[in-house]
Design a protein that fits this description.
Helix content: 25-40%
Strand order of the largest sheet: 14-15-18-19-21-20-22
Number of strands: 25
Number of helices: 15
Distance between the termini: 47 Å
Radius of gyration: 23 Å
Amino acid sequence: MASLVLGPLLRYVSDTEATVWVETDAACEVEVLGERARTFEVAHHHYALVCIDGLEPGGVREYEVALDGETVWPAGSSDFPPSAIGTLQPHGKVDLVFGSCRLSLPHVPPYTLTKDENELGREVDALYVLGRQMLRGDRSDFPEAILMIGDQVYADEVPPNVREFIAERRANRSGEDEAPLDEVADFEEYTRLYYEAWSEPVIRWLLSTVSSSMVFDDHDMNDDWNISRSWVADMRGKPWWQERIVGGFMSYWVYQHIGNLSPRELADDETYRAVSGAMGDATPILREFAARAEREPTGTRWSTYRDIGRTRLIIVDSRASRVLEHDRRLIFDDAEWDWIVEHATGDFDHLVIGTSLPYLLGHGMHYLEAWSERVCNGAWGKAWSRVGERIRRGVDLEHWAAFEMSFERLSRLLEDVGSGRRGRPPASIVVISGDVHHAYLAEVAFRRCSGVKSAVYQAVCSPMRNPLNVRERLAIRAGASPFGFAVGRALARLAGVPDPQVRWRFVEGPLFNNQIATLKLRGRDASLRLDKTAPQDDDGHRLDQIFDRPLAGKAPR
């Protein structure tokens, strides 16, 4: 008899539809609320995505999971409420919880200490504390979705249990084709990362009852993934890299990507149809797809969108489809950008664009990144171009400002939507991001003649669990300071960088904690709340509100 290995995860949810993802230890038929799906097999692992239709808008349906007719979820513990699917109301509340950068480590010392107290310290997981808080709360207060916008797993910084598994697995093998022992090497080792990330009981319950959308960032593959052309060349020269990157894409497709898609999109997806319909092991099909996605990124789109009531949510991939030519650096290739433009429209109350990398940084860092691109492209000659490339990779200068054409494209798109050139202007346009291990809220201003009527913001929340040490925090503060602004701008001007067409100012932050954000949308009102983990006597930790700031209209409750 098959048993449940991981999940269930509640993934896509609309007003009448939902999908539930599971991993099992054997081939079987999975049933949820009367809907059934056969598992598909990848490298001796078995998965299913059950599509459920005919749900009542604005309703809550408790559910069980059965494998070959035997109920396996809930697992018999009375410590957790039943898992349930809460469908959307067309004009109901929308709370979108988001964050990034989550290391899956034990909640015991030294891992619960600060980085300054112990190099292994990462404090307490904000997602875990959110789950503990929800266990004591009311179902009506649960968020409509959790958006995990990058670095759900760290391929290059693995938890202790995974490190032990890797050491045991490779004990009888040796050779230069093996990845370092503290990093994953292939699909099998990636599966262990996801198990560690999602199997903790509170996290498992949370993900079984709140819809989630996900996108990868660099650490899902490797630090600084696709930062530049020279980085790609160097990594492809490592004998273990091909197996790592193929395993990374395969696991991302299985564990994260397909759950982002609606039932209609799944039915139209050629790869999903081939893998889920394969007779026997679908590894060759998925492996070929993953290898092609790495070598020919223009043929694969990882970005997705969802309409949540009157809110259009677009989650964009800012890693895998980059153009890294010497004189043409883009966050997205042209086909991916055309797709984003097509879906970033008005006629919604709110437009939310999720991108793992912040569109707007502290001004000093913005100008430094823009300077690095110009210098790498030869603005100061060939010798400085090589120096600029070393600085770019050494200091992680890889955000939107380091891809000037993409930065300007997004700025124009936000102006077009906010001014009504792409439909009725939304009340708010919010770019949500992670990656940078601190949080802030930046208000965006456009030229007076632009006609922008929407309130436009960049909201960053990072990390869920991977805070900075004192030295790193000082560097961030310097980049956001007036002095950093002056130095960065002077350097940029010497390299011929023009001032950006938008202006912005930090209205909150930078803030350095393990933290999680909630974008609250009610009709055409919007606000952003940020909470951090804090000690508590009775059960260890709680979430403390840092700020709750209106973005558009009144402050929603």
